Amino acid sequence: MPSTVIAAMHYDPESKTLTIVYRGHRGTYRYFEVTPEDYAAFRAAPSKGTYLNTTFKAHGYRYERVASTH
Q1: Residue 56 DSSP one-character state
Q2: d(CA 40, CA 30)
Q3: How far apart are the C-alpha atoms of 67 and 70, rounded to whole Å?
Q4: 3-state helix vs strand vs coil in the chain, percent to 5
Q5: How far is CA 10 from each of CA 3, 16, rounded to the nearest angstrom?
Q6: How far is 59 from 70, CA to CA, in rounded Å?
Q7: What does residue 16 show for φ and ψ, rounded to 5 degrees?
Q8: What pLDDT shows up at residue 2?
Q9: Number of H helices, E strands in the chain
Q10: Which residues contact 41 (CB under 8 A, 6 or more apart)?
Q11: Residue 66 to residue 50: CA distance in whole angstroms
Q12: What is the mean pLDDT of each run of 10 residues along the chain (70 residues)?
């Protein structure tokens, strides 16, 4: 999962929650109601950042920033 924007991600199909850890000091975010199909397309996208902007953000996925534990 090489990405210049994303350091790590985890998808929970049961809750349909995608957690993304961004590189740098951008933080960690949870995106809700992400279908397995959208997650699979996201994983397959050549540019994760572009996919996030054109699909997740454009379609208004509900999200929250996860509080830092540091």
Answers
A1: I
A2: 16
A3: 9
A4: 25, 30, 45
A5: 14, 11
A6: 32
A7: 55, 40
A8: 59
A9: 2, 4
A10: 51, 55
A11: 22
A12: 82 96 90 93 90 83 82
